[in-house]
Amino acid sequence: MSAAAEPAAILDRPVFIVASPRSGASLLFDTLMRAPKVYSAGAASHQLLEGIDGLHVRARGFDSNRLLAADATPAVAAELARRFDAAARDRDGAPPQRLPFRLLDKTPKHSLRVPFLAQAFPDAQFVYLYRDPRQVLANMLLAWASGKFRTYAGLPGWPRDHWALLLTPGWRALAGKPLADIVAGQWQAATDVLLADLEALAPQRWRVLRYDDFLANPSGEIARLCLALDYGWDRPLNGGVPTAAGEQPTAEDAEVVRRHAADLQRLWPGLQATADRAARLAGL
Fold first, then answer.
1. Angle ∠(83,47,52) on CA atoms, nearest 5
2. For 157-180, what is each residue's pLDDT tens digit?
3. Signal peptide position in this chain (predicted)?
4. Checking phi first, is residue 113 left (phi over 0); if not, alpha (psi -120 to 50) or beta?
5. What are the structural domains of the chain?
C-alpha cells in the first residue's frame, strides 16, 4: 500500500456525528458544513461505505448495520478514505485542494459503527447529538408511517413491505409487532449500542451536544463545538438556525402520534433505563 493510500494521508481528524435516528443530526450537520475548509461526501456517504466488499448488510446476512473494529481492515480503511476523498466537497461545492482534509460525515447508521470508524480512523472524533427520547420516538413513528424512509424493501423475514431507518441488532424479534413496539425496540437497540460504544472510547475522542441547547443558543453552541473540533468559523448564524425540513408538525402528524400514544405509554417503562443512561451521558 502506498503512503498516499494511507487514511491518515487523506483525512485529518474526521468528525462523525452520531445520534439516535431522527434526532436532528441533519440540522447540526448542515450548520457545521458552513465552516470553512470542512468537507463532506453529502447524502452519498452511506453508499460509499456500503459499496465496499463485505460491508453491505446483504453480505452480512441482513443481520444489522452494525460494524465492528475487526471490519476496519487496513485495506477497507484505505478504500473508504479514498472514496471520501473522491466525493468530498466543501460548503461552496469545491473539492479538497490539498491532503489531508477535514471530513464531516453523518448517517444514522453510524450510531452502530463507532468501533469500526474509530479503528479505521484513529484520529476520528465523534459528536453525540442528544435529544429527548420522547421527541425522537415521535419522529421515528412519523418516519415509518410516512413511507418515505424505506431503507430496505422486501427485507427477508420481515412481514411489512419495507424497513425504515437503520437496521438494528435483533430486528427480527420485532416482526409482527405493532408499529410503536417496532419503533421503541429500534430506538432502544440503537441507543444502547451507541452509548456503550462511546463510553468505550477515550474521553477526548467524543463530545456531546444537546439538541435543545443547540436550538436555544445556536451561535454559542456552534462556537463551543467548533473550538473543540478545531474548526474555523466565519459566517455568523444571523437569525439562528432554521427548523429542520419535515420537523414542522402537521395535523396529520399529530394524528399519527395520537393513534400510537397509548402504546408508547405502555412501552415507556421498558425504555426508561436507556433513556436515563442517555440523559446522564448528556449531562442531564
1. 60
2. 999 999 999 999 999 999 999 999
3. none
4. alpha
5. 3-281 (3.40.50)
